[in-house]
Specification:
By secondary structure, the protein is an alpha/beta fold. It has helices spanning about 15-25, 40-45, 65-70, 90-100, 110-125, 160-170, 180-185, 195-210; strands at about 5-10, 30-35, 50-55, 80-85, 105, 135, 140-145, 150, 155, 175-180, 215-220, 225. The strands form three sheets. Strands 2-1-3-4-5 form a five-stranded parallel beta sheet, with helices on both faces. The protein has a four-stranded antiparallel beta sheet with strand order 6-7-8-9, with helices on one face. α1 crosses α5, α6 (about 160-170) crosses α7 and α7 crosses α8. The mean pLDDT is about 90. The structure holds calcium ion (CA). Calcium ion (CA) binds near residues 13, 56 and 59.
Length: about 230
């Protein structure tokens, strides 16, 4: 499994802004891929899934709003986190962008610091398993940065696949996921894995958690959930 840094797609035609934003995002630890029109943005999305997309409102070939509605209309991309960038601060523009499914809005000129803070907040909100914050449930603590898992303050041995599974489930506690959802969310859409693979990793995860194995619940004929209850 490739462990490349998460990428942010910047769709912006003003090169000065592209430069400013790229510098700020790279300094904050992201990969940046910049394109300058909606056609190139769409093409990029056919090959890669960025963690977040920053979308300028006014682009040379088509408006950012048009691209946004195309993205939201596509099952493959409708959960992609999108922040609109706009030179206009008019209330009606914000409403139009949010109506089309933008997750957040930032008005130019903005400070790079504010942009980074907004992106982090959006990731925490939409994809908590990708936010690099420590997460915990009951006696289990998971640190996504050091990839360590502690049970009652003791570090445990855990395999890579089990770590990813735990990371996803601890970010969404008290929610049942089917085997196919877990395959999709943890191993990605393109994984050629059978559903019983999930059972194998759940078994290993329980073993790795030792005394905290009770957190991993089997929900009969549905799937699995992480729960303290
Ligand atoms: Ca523009």
């Amino acid at each position: 499994m490739a462990s490349s840094r998460p990428a942010i797609l910047v769709v912006e035609d003003e090169l000065a802004i592209v430069e400013l934003v790229s510098f700020a995002l790279k300094s904050a630890g992201w990969e940046v891929h910049a394109v300058h029109n909606t056609a190139d943005a769409w093409q990029y999305l056919q090959q890669q899934r960025p963690q977040v997309m920053l979308l300028d409102r006014m682009l040379p070939d088509q408006s950012g709003i048009r691209l946004l509605s195309r993205i939201r209309g596509d099952r493959q991309f409708n959960t992609l986190p999108v922040i609109m960038l706009t030179a206009k601060s008019m209330e009606e523009d914000k409403v139009a962008g949010l109506d089309q499914g933008a997750d957040d809005y930032i008005t130019k000129p903005f400070s790079p610091k504010e942009l980074v803070a907004r992106i982090k907040a959006l990731i925490r909100r939409k994809e908590p398993e990708h936010a690099e914050l420590e997460m915990s449930l009951g006696p289990v603590r998971l640190d996504p940065v050091s990839c360590r898992v502690l049970v009652q303050d003791q570090q445990i041995e855990i395999g890579h696949a089990e770590f990813k599974l735990l990371k996803f489930m601890i970010a969404h506690p008290e929610r049942v996921f089917s085997r196919s959802q877990l395959l999709d969310k943890v191993w990605g859409d393109h994984a050629v894995l059978e559903e019983r693979t999930v059972d194998v990793h759940v078994l290993r995860l329980r073993k790795a958690l030792g005394s905290a194995d009770y957190l991993v619940k089997t929900v009969r004929s549905v799937g699995y959930m992480l729960s303290e209850k």
